[in-house]
Structure formats: C-alpha cells, structure tokens
Specification:
The complex is a heterodimer of chains A (763) and B (184). Chain A is mainly beta and 763 residues long. In chain A, 3% of the residues lie in helices and 57% in strands. Chain A is built from 4 helices and 41 strands. Chain A has a 22-stranded antiparallel β-barrel. In chain A, strands 2-9-3-6 form a 4-stranded mixed sheet, with no helix packed on it. Chain A is globular, with a radius of gyration of 27 Å. Chain A starts with a strand and ends with a strand. Chain B has helices at residues 2-19, 101-107; strands spanning 41-48, 54-60, 72-73, 76-78, 83-92, 99-100, 112-119, 123-127, 140-145, 149-159, 172-183. In chain B, 30% of the residues are buried. Helix content of chain B is 14%, strand content 40%. Chain B contains 2 helices and 11 strands. Chain B is elongated. In chain B, the strands form 2 sheets. In chain B, strands 1, 2, 3, 5, 6, 8 and 9 form a 7-stranded antiparallel sheet that branches. Chain B has a 4-stranded mixed sheet with strand order 4-11-10-7, with no helix packed on it. Chain B is mainly beta. Classes of the chains: A mainly beta (763), B mainly beta (184).
C-alpha cells in the first residue's frame, strides 16, 4: 500500500482581495507525484467541516474549490485507498497550491502491481469486488480468482492453489510479509491462513518475487492485511462479517476492530477473529460422509510510530479441523479399484456437523516483529523477525481395531525467519532494493513415518533494481541462496544422518514498454531453482488417501526453471484486456512416476510411485477481456490454457489443470450489482497412460449468480450479498480433485452474506 | 490511566505470544515412536483333528506397512484327506508387551469378518465361530483337504463397523494375504 508522506505547499497570490461576499475565495491547485513529477489524477480534496465542498483532481492533477470563506481552512487530501493528509491554511485571498505527494511503499518494497489506468482488474491481483464476493471462502478459493491460479482439491474441504500447473513446494505463500511454512509438500495440506485477514492477494512472478525467495518456481502468492498504521485516534474502526451457505449448512462470523490510542501517543492496535463451521457437503445425489469443517482463528497487531521509525508486533493463530470423506481411505488397491468402479459412494451418511475419523487438525501460529525505518524521503530500512509453529495431526480411518485413538501422523515444523532490506528510490535515476533473508527450521514427528525429522538452514541475498528510460522501464534482480538440510533417518534402532548443502543463483530480467495510457507490454526472462524437499528425498510410506506407496530418492539434485513470458495490457473506457503467454522449461523436474513391482504388505498389494527427475516444459496462456457498456452493463471473459510435456518420455505431463473459461455478465448500479456467470472446464486429454487409476473425468459447465446490495440503516452502512453456485445442480467430477475417484462435486448451494463496516467515534 | 491501558494491551499481547508457544515438539533427531496400530505377525495354527498334530503357517513383516516386504512368508502345506482346525493369531510385535490384535478382533467380533478364498487347491473352509448377531467371524475355521493339489489361499480380514452382513462386500480390507498352498 502506498502511503503519502510528504507535503510541500506553496502559496501564490492570484488575484486581489475581494470584500463583497463572506466566502469569496477560490483555492486552485495541482497535485504532483514527487518522484515521477507526473500529475496525480483521482486525488480527492475535501474541506474539513464542509460536506459538499469537495472535488477530485482531473487528469492533469488540477483541482478547483470555489466559494471558500476567509480564515482557517483545513484540507483533506487522499489518493486512492491511502490515508488522508491534512493541510492547514489561513486564507486571506485566492490561493494556488502545488502539492507534492511522495509515494513510498509502506509494507513491502517491490510489491507494486504494475497496472495502468484506474481499472481494478488485473490478471495477477484479486480485485476488491472479487475479494468481497469471496468472503467466507478459504484462502485458496480466494486465490483461484487470479489468472493462472486453479485449485488442487481433496474432496470439497481441502484446497490448495496451483499456479500455472505448479503447486506445493513450488508455490510460496507470503502471509503478512512472512513466508508461510507448514507441511507444504502434501497435496492434501491446505494453506493455514485466515482468509478474513486478506485485504490484498497478489501473484508475484517478476523481479519483485526475488525479494522473498529463490524457490518460487511457480510464483509467490502474497496475502496482505491492511497496515495497522492506518488506524485513527478517537475512532474505533472495524468490520463485522457473517454469512452462510445452504450447501454444508455452513456459517461464519468474523470481526475486526482497530484504533490509534490517542493523537499524542502513536500506538496503533487491531484485533481480529474468525469462526467457521460447516457440515456434510451435498452433491446432486447424496451427502458426502464426514466432510464437516471447523475453523477458529484470531490475530492481534500492535504498532508504534516513533518519528520515522515504525515498530510492529503481530501474532496470529489459526486452527482448523477438517473431515475427510471416509470412503477415500481404502484398505488396499483392490478396495480402491472397487470404489472407482462404483457409481455410488461406498460410505453413506446423512447430514451432520460431527467430524469423525479420518480427519486432519492443524494449529498454525505466527509471531512477528517488524521495524520500518524511514531513513529519508527516498530510502528506508526494513527489518523483520518471525517465528512460526505448524502442528499438523492426521487421523486416519480406524484400522483393524478401535483400540488406537491418537493421530496416525503428528508433524511439528518450527521456523524462524529473519529479513533485512534497504530500499533506495531515485538513486542516480535507479530504484533499488537489497537485503538478506535467513531461515532456520526444524521438523519432527511422532506416529507413522512419512517425512524424516530434519534441521534446515537458509541464507539468501538479493539485489533488485529498476530504471525508467522514457516509455521503457527495465527491472533486474539477482539473488544468491545457500541452504542446508540435516535429516535423521531411522532404520529400526540404527540412525543414519544425511547432510546436504545447496547453493545457487536466481535471476530475473523484465522490460516494460508503456506505449500510452492504454497499452502496456511487459516481457520477462527469469530462472529459479529449488532444492529437493525432504519428502522427495526420503519419503517411504503409504499415502493413505491414494492407496499408493511413495518412495523418495536421496540422490536427487535441485530442479531449475527457465521462464519466459509476455504480458499485454490494454484498457480504455469500454475495454479492459490483459493476456500473458509463457513458456517454462524445468530441468530436473521432480515428479512421481509409477514403478513396478507392487509392494506386498499385510494389507495386500499397493502400487509404488517413485520420485524421479525429468526435464519438462510448460506452455500456457492466461487472459481476460472485459467490455463495459453504457448504463453500467458489463461482460467479461476469462480463460486459461496450459500444456505440459515430459521431454524424457515424450509423454504429456499428468495432473495439470485442463482448459477452462468463465463468462460473466452483469450490471453495476450505484448500490446494486447483479451478475451471472457461466464456467466451463474441458476434459483433460493430455495425461500419460498408466499414471492414473482412472481416465480423467468429463468436462463440465456450471452456472451461477451473484447479487450485492449496499444500504444504510440509521446511518449504519451494510452490504448484503447473495450468491448461487451450481445453479442447475449439475453432477460432475473435477480432474484436479483427488477425490474424483470417490465422490461427485458439490451441488446447488445458496450463500447469503452480510458485511457491516463499523465506525465507533470515541469522545 | 493511559499507562494502564498501554500496559494491559502489552500484557494481553504477551499472553498471545506465550500461548503461541505451548506445543512442545519432539527433537528432530528422536527415534520414531509409532504408537499407531501395526500388524507385524500373522499366524495360522493348524491342528489335525485326527491326531492333534500342530502345524503353523507364519507371516512376519517387522515394519508392517513400511518399506520392507515380509521377511517370513510361509507356504501352507497340508496332508490329503484330513480335517484341520485353523486358528488365527495376529500380533503387533513392535509393542512391549506384544499386542494381540486377534484378541481385539474377538472383542469387536461384530465389526469383523475373515474370508478365505482358494484357487487351484482341493480344499473346503468352514468358518465355525460366530459374533453376537450369529454372523460368522473366522478366527476359528475347519479346513477339509481333498486330493493332492497346488494353488493359493487368500485370507482377507474385512473391517465392517456397522455394515457387517456376513458377506465380503461391505467395509474395508484390513488384511489381504495370499499364501501358496499345497496339499500332498
């Protein structure tokens, strides 16, 4: 979020004093961005105490306020979503003001979204409208509204984001500036983040991604809350959210409140909490047994501003318990095959909120201290120290006897992260960011073996610079990382300690050409690398949900990606268009491949999948086009195509999302928005034979409807929204859902949501 | 007043931070402590009804579902024209004392069913023990051998909590072992 900091105001006398009226004066001015010296349009200027006296700067940054009285005058100036700036004047004549606004990224440098015009819509960012429509959904479901992001689901309750076909260890999620560290490798491990904390969700793919990590081969998804330093004194601000969905009979409550302690004491605070509960999901034919969810989260943040130093303490706790469809935990391969061949679920249950085995339960806690030191108008120093604790428990279906009650898997992963960055803008016409990231991580477990206990250290140094040459902007970033891994492998009473070290460079180079206000073209070339993860190296065990045995390979080397992409954006009054085409070559892509023979256990034979490294390519296109008509009608089309090829065996890469598109049409009135959507997903024909137990499910199309309405009851603004999902109660299965073998997807459902912004003025 | 407010805010915050650290994870280098249910041993104890001679067919897999295949997997060799009483003993030998899984199965007889499937051998298997609903269990069975022959016998344990109806179909498979079998 940009923050407006410095104001320089100059007084110029324009005309002679006039005595005829009490309010004879005109205040004119121009708003200029101090770093680019470009006028800033869409800046709001209002007069304190006078409701109707307000205006917005035009395209040239100019504004005019007429009929202003003599005497003291307080102007409020705000640009886009940034906080207000106050200018106090004593007016004795007509006045002309030149106001310089200096933009400084507040929380994260390099997190700027390159956008043109004032259109909110972008491929790499969740729009405010979309964020509001998605309230009550999980963080991954929120992310799927970003171009190229689809979901990898496990049933209807677990979802994790796939970015252009890549997921798990290849997609990094930043929560409040801190890299989310859990058991990311698991396909059924959803990101442990409260979606209500997000005020912005952005996908970083360019040079700015190197600020945070080297191993974001797929991309970095950034989730950001509103800065606590935007809270104000004398007023308690917040938001209350509640809603429910008929399918699953789920409901949520969420409250956020914050304020500044007083005018004199620059102590800011905010607290937030969310409760969620849902029961068994209904498909068009039946309820899916044991698919309830419970979620409880809270967070608190304290901010203290000492002149140019901003200090922040943040803590969040996330807890959830997710039921897993019982029939998915099959006994052995024969049971799995039987389940796949059956059209109806093997376990039947009516509606219930109760969650029985199998289920997963996760506690995720994050504590963070950060400091932001504004060294000068153009440079700042950022420091953060964070501690994260992720405790994941997985309770499998009760086995032979009901004697054992505990979890089958119990993982603890603790991570300490330190981060230091220096940002310097306008330094010999360059802007640059340089710094280091450090990580220290421990992983331990009790219960069944899947991933070993380990210690893991990381040190990364980065340098990012950009420069504007007229209409061309160039960005370059270089990063070097060192990582090590000490893993403890037990074979009965014998301990085998494995120690591995990795170090390498990451780079990105980007050129942007801004043809005019309407057209912008960006090209990017980048390369990232990722060391093999502990599960890929050492896992050796039964993957319950898929009745398969996964075997790691301790001799694997890091995988490296080479990415090239072109992004074109165009917008004018009627049209908004954005498209990106990319080609990725990944050397030593780590993938599971079926292997023979099957492994004999007491429970029967299980197929074995080995982790292998192969060279692969990914080619894709993500695009959207929107046309706005007079009277606020709009129509919008989104689409994505992705193709993966395994170069080692000339087979298509399996487990990639098929082609999908979404058509939305609607009307936005002042306070009412109505839209209908149609979403189509094709069948995935590109998969390699023998990599799957069943052929990919057929394509499907879904209809839906959203209505939002803003109203006021006794000065209290309210926003109501009503949505219908799967309007025609279509029965379908999705290729990217790991439970496609067992159950249909969610059927018809209606949601009703209420958002209540709160403003409590304290005397 | 203001100081009190700040102090209490900071205090609340500290409580947040402290409660955030209550989990005490084991050390990454700790040896595994697998308390989950494991089956390491499967024994079929045959008693010749005519002369009370005992013969045991044995399967042993030290790590259960883990990476290693069974270290012992006997073939069943029976004499022609006999009647054997077959009793099943299932153990978890990783636990101390050794855990008898078959006793647990007996306690939960209403949820379990053993199924015997032969292929190529001249043999009939008759399950004689029953659960509380008079449905077969299979921890005890009688095997009547015919002429000399060779083939396999598959032993399945079906876990059928709440859905047991005496057939193999419902529930999940907990044990699926195929023994080579010879009658001579």
């Amino acid at each position: 979020m940009k923050k407006i900091l410095i104001i320089v105001s100059l007084f110029f006398s324009l005309s002679l004093l006039s005595q005829k009226s009490e309010c004879p004066f005109t205040v004119k001015g121009v708003i200029i961005d101090s770093s680019t010296h470009q006028p800033l349009e869409l800046t709001n200027i209002s007069v304190s105490g006078l409701r109707n006296k307000g205006t917005a700067a035009n395209a040239k940054g100019e504004f005019t306020l007429e009929n202003i009285c003599s005497g003291p005058l307080e102007l409020h100036i705000s640009h886009l979503q940034c906080e207000h700036i106050h200018i106090n004047l004593f007016l004795t004549r007509d006045t002309f003001l030149t106001i310089y606004l200096h933009h400084i990224e507040h929380e994260m440098a390099g997190a700027k979204v390159i956008g043109i015009g004032n259109k909110d819509e972008s491929l790499s960012k969740l729009s405010v409208k979309q964020l509001e429509l998605s309230k009550g959904q999980s963080i991954a479901e929120l992310m799927q509204n970003i171009g190229g992001v689809t979901l990898l689901k496990t049933g209807n309750t677990v979802a994790k984001p796939i970015v252009n076909g890549l997921h798990g260890n290849r997609v990094i999620i930043l929560n409040n500036g801190i890299r989310q560290e859990g058991q990311n490798w698991g396909m059924e491990h959803a990101p442990e983040i409260d979606a209500f904390i997000a005020s912005e969700v952005i996908l970083l793919k360019g040079t700015e991604a190197l600020r945070y990590a080297a191993d974001g081969v797929g991309g970095i998804l950034m989730v950001r809350p509103v800065s606590v330093f935007r809270e104000k004194a004398h007023v308690l601000k917040g938001e209350f959210n509640t809603g429910g969905n008929t399918n699953g009979r789920s409901g949520y409550l969420s409250l956020v409140l914050g304020s500044k302690l007083s005018d004199k004491l620059p102590l800011y605070w905010r607290v937030q909490g969310t409760l969620k509960q849902g029961g068994n999901i209904k498909t068009p034919g039946y309820f899916v047994a044991n698919t309830g969810v419970t979620e409880m989260n809270y967070s608190g943040v304290l901010g203290y501003q000492f002149k140019r130093l901003k200090l922040e303490l943040f803590h969040s706790t996330f807890y959830n318990k997710i039921g897993i469809y019982k029939g998915s935990h099959t006994g052995n391969l024969n049971d799995l095959q039987k389940a796949i061949n059956s059209d109806t679920p093997s376990v039947n249950q009516g509606f219930t909120y109760a969650i029985d085995r199998p289920y997963q339960q996760v506690y995720h806690r994050l504590s963070k201290f950060s400091a932001d030191w504004q060294l000068s108008a153009k440079s700042k120093l950022q420091f953060s120290l964070a501690y994260q604790q992720n405790h994941r428990q997985e309770y499998d279906r009760v086995r032979t006897t009901a004697q054992f009650q505990g979890p089958d898997f119990d993982y603890y992963i603790n991570t300490w992260l330190g981060d230091l960055a220096l940002i310097k803008n306008d330094f010999h016409s360059y802007n640059f960011t340089a710094g280091i990231n450090t990580t220290y991580q421990t992983n331990s477990y009790t219960g069944r073996f899947f991933v070993p206990g380990f210690y893991n250290k990381g040190l990364g140094a980065f340098f990012i610079a950009d420069r504007q040459f007229g209409k061309i902007k160039t960005d370059a970033a270089l990063r070097y990382d060192y990582k090590d891994l000490r893993a403890y492998l037990w074979n009965g009473p014998k301990l085998n300690v494995q120690y591995l070290e990795f170090a390498n460079f990451t780079y990105a180079f980007q050129v942007g050409y801004q043809h005019n206000k309407q057209l912008q073209i960006n090209a990017i070339v980048s390369s990232a690398w990722r060391p093999p993860a502990p599960n890929e190296l050492y896992s050796n065990g039964l993957h319950q949900g898929l009745a398969s045995i996964e075997v790691g390979d301790s001799t694997m080397v890091p995988e490296r990606s080479f990415h090239q992409g072109i992004n074109v954006k165009f917008n004018n009054k009627q049209w908004t268009f954005e498209s990106e085409v990319f080609f990725k070559y990944i050397k030593g892509y780590i993938n599971l491949q079926p292997a023979l023979p099957a492994r004999i256990t007491i429970r029967g034979a299980f197929p074995v999948f080995n982790y292998v490294q192969q060279d692969v390519t990914l080619t894709g296109l993500n695009a959207f086009i929107k046309r706005e008509f007079v009277k606020q009608y709009f129509i919008k089309l989104n689409g994505q195509v992705l193709m993966g090829q395994n170069m080692a065996n000339s087979q298509p890469l399996s487990q990639l999302p098929p082609f999908s598109g979404k058509l939305t049409a609607g009307k936005e009135y002042k306070k009412l928005m109505v839209q209908m959507w149609y979403q189509a997903t094709a069948q995935q024909f590109r998969y390699s034979e023998g990599s799957d137990y069943a052929a990919p499910p057929k394509g499907y199309a879904l209809f839906g409807l959203d209505i939002t309405y803003e109203l006021k009851i006794k000065n209290q603004p309210l926003r109501l929204s009503y949505s219908i999902n799967n309007l025609l109660n279509t029965r379908y299965r999705d290729y990217m859902n790991r439970f496609r073998y067992f159950t249909d997807e969610q059927g018809f459902g209606m949601t009703l949501k209420l958002t209540m912004p709160l403003t409590i003025t304290k005397s | 007043m203001k100081q009190t407010l700040i102090a209490s805010l900071v205090l609340i915050y500290t409580v947040f931070l402290i409660t955030g650290c209550k989990d005490n994870p084991p050390s990454p280098s700790n040896p595994p402590t697998n308390e989950t249910e494991l089956i390491t041993t499967f024994k079929l104890i045959f008693t010749d009804t005519a002369n009370s001679r005992v013969y045991i067919a044995y399967m042993f897999d030290a790590d259960g579902l883990g990476p290693d295949n069974p270290s012992i997997f006997d073939s069943i060799t029976l004499d022609t024209g006999r009647v054997y009483k077959a009793e099943i003993v299932i153990l978890d030998e990783t636990k101390n004392p050794v855990d008898s899984v078959s006793n647990e199965i007996l306690n939960e007889a209403d949820d379990h069913l053993f199924v015997f499937k032969k292929s190529g051998v001249d043999l009939t298997v008759q399950v004689t023990d029953k659960d509380s609903k008079n449905l077969p269990l299979g921890l005890v069975s009688y095997w009547t051998t015919g002429a000399a022959s060779k083939g396999t016998i598959q032993v399945l344990l079906k876990h059928q909590p709440g859905v047991k109806d005496g057939t193999e179909q419902p529930g999940e498979t907990d044990i699926d072992l195929t023994f080579n079998c010879r009658i001579k």
